[in-house]
């Protein structure tokens, strides 16, 4: 354990220009509010409607919850640091932020896999769907996602806490992540970089490829459906595929570095920490008739109550 010399880190953040910081402060505050409200709206709609009985919406409510948790590990600090003079984070705070960011992020990835499996079962095995995706199976998949994410995150933390930090303490990022921290260690970390790329990077690529293949199978099965059934299933799958691409591509670029480019990492990280979680609610609600109908019913019912 070699962090005795360092008790805190300095986050260099996204920008150094003061005017850009002020503009981004407003922008990110609005983004964060949109993420909270959008995902809260999805959670309430699913909870208050018949949709919660369907596995797809059961997973979607967990995905929305994880979106909020994931963004909340990074956004508040990113936003306050834009105005702060000293952007410090304690050693323990840094480890905690890294653990939670990886934990909630990885849980999201596994839930996206569960959602793809659910769509596969619904479209390719419709007669056995209720058996394949029973409520028990749904709970098992969510628990497995949480367990898998916990294992992944604890491994990242165990790697970092063993590193000696004795010199520079400036992290060239806006939150604590593995690669920027490895750069600060007082030892040769090239082997660890390879280990992390092979675990996180390869896992991201394999998951992404598996998801794309599963949706290709689903889309090829859809060709045999009637035009109405096909349109409905296409809009659902279309929204899932959009979310998968928005989340995974920046993630892969971050964890499979083509070159030694942390500055690009910050931009890519912005995609999966702020931009994708903000668009998820929009994608799932605007392209989804069931969600739109459920929301309409919920608002109309509330309006009726208020009218009385």
Folded structure, characterized:
The protein has 308 residues and is an all-alpha fold. The chain contains ten helices and three strands. The chain has helices at residues 18-47, 55-83, 91-124, 129-132, 135-161, 178-182, 190-222, 227-255, 262-286, 289-307, and strands spanning 8-11, 88-90, 170-171. It has a three-stranded mixed beta sheet with strand order 2-1-3. Helix 3 (91-124) runs parallel beside helix 7 (190-222) and helix 8 (227-255) packs antiparallel against helix 9. The radius of gyration is 21 Å and the shape is globular. The mean pLDDT is 84. GO terms for molecular function: G protein-coupled receptor activity; olfactory receptor activity. This is Olfactory receptor. Putative odorant or sperm cell receptor. It is a multi-pass membrane protein. It is found in: Cell membrane; Membrane.
Tell me the number of strands: 3
pLDDT averaged residue by residue:
84
Class by alpha and beta content: mainly alpha
Series of secondary-structure elements, N-terminal to C-terminal:
EHHEHHHEHHHHH
Helix content: over 70%
**Assembly type:** single chain
Given as residue ranges, the uncertain stretches (5+ residues, pLDDT < 50) are none
- Strand count, sense and closure of the main sheet? 3 strands, mixed
Shape: globular
Task: From the alpha carbons, calculate the radius of gyration and give it in angstroms.
Answer: 21 Å
The largest beta-sheet arranges its strands as 2-1-3
- Supply the number of helical segments: 10
Strand content: under 5%
Report the span from N to C terminus: 65 Å
């Amino acid at each position: 354990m070699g962090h005795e010399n360092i008790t805190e880190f300095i986050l260099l953040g996204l920008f150094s220009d003061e005017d850009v910081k002020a503009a981004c402060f407003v922008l990110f505050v609005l983004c964060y509010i949109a993420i909270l409200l959008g995902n809260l709206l999805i959670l309430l709609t699913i909870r208050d409607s018949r949709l919660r009985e369907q596995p797809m919406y059961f997973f979607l409510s967990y995905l929305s919850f994880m979106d909020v948790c994931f963004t909340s590990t990074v956004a508040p600090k990113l936003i306050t640091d834009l105005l702060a003079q000293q952007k410090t984070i304690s050693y323990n705070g840094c480890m905690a932020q890294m653990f939670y960011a990886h934990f909630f992020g990885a849980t999201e990835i596994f839930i996206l896999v569960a959602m793809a499996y659910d769509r596969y079962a619904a479209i390719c095995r419709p007669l056995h769907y209720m058996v394949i995706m029973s409520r028990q199976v749904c709970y098992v998949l969510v628990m497995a996602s949480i367990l898998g994410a916990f294992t992944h995150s604890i491994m990242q933390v165990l790697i970092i806490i063993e590193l000696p930090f004795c010199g520079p303490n400036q992290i060239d990022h806006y939150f604590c992540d593995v690669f920027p921290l490895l750069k600060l260690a007082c030892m040769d970390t090239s082997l660890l970089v390879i280990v992390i790329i092979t675990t996180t990077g390869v896992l991201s690529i394999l998951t992404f490829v598996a998801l794309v293949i599963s949706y290709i199978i689903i889309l090829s099965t859809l060709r045999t459906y009637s035009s109405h059934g096909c349109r409905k299933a296409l809009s659902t799958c279309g929204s899932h595929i959009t979310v998968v691409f928005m989340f995974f591509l920046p993630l892969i670029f971050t964890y499979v570095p083509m070159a030694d480019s942390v500055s690009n990492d910050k931009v890519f990280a912005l995609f999966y920490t702020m931009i994708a979680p903000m668009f998820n609610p929009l994608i799932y609600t605007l392209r989804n008739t069931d969600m739109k109908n459920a929301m309409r019913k919920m608002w109309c019912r509330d309006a009726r109550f208020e009218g009385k």
